[in-house]
Amino acid sequence: MTISVETEQRGALVVKIVGTTSVAAGGQGALANPEGKILMVTKTTLHVKTPSTGAANIDVGIAAAAATDAVDIINALAMNGAIGGKVYNGHARQNTGKTEITAPIPWTSTGFLCITGSASLVGLEAYLFVEYFRLPA
């Protein structure tokens, strides 16, 4: 048997989120795939430094187009109130062995990480930590 290292990878991003007034799909921000390769997001963590000034939820997910309200990482998490300094898990991987991973979807080489607000997220400052690995083409 032989093994070899196929690629050496960095595998992590820190995405700063500064809330805006946009309620458009992907309107809070859309990040193009940073490596131009198919990526599998394995873990996401959201640290809220400062909450939004008004009531609003945030959606985060992977999609083919930037203008998409994707929810496969975070779905309708409230971003106002007493949440400053709190840390939230993004999507949860299944704990059962031999289970197909169905969310989040693979981040295609031309896909986007999309962030959408249900209402104005002005005042929000948050950091999304994204861990991933490359899938073979």
Walk me through this protein's architecture.
The protein is globular. It has 137 residues and is mostly beta strands. The strands form two sheets. A four-stranded antiparallel sheet has the order 1-8-3-6, with no helix packed on it. It has a four-stranded antiparallel sheet with strand order 2-7-4-5, with no helix packed on it. Helix content is 0%, strand content 39%. The protein has strands at 12-18, 29-32, 39-50, 57-63, 74-78, 87-89, 112-117, 125-134.
What is the average of the pLDDT values? 89
Numbering strands along the chain, what is their spatial order in the largest sheet? 1-8-3-6
Q: SSE order, as H and E?
A: EEEEEEEE
Backbone shape: globular
Q: List low-pLDDT spans.
A: none
Tally of alpha and pi helices: 0
Briefly note the structural class of the backbone: mainly beta
Q: How many strands in all?
A: 8
Proportion in helices: under 10%
Radius of gyration: 16 Å
| Biggest sheet overview | 4 strands, antiparallel
- How much of the residues is beta strand, in percent? 35-45%
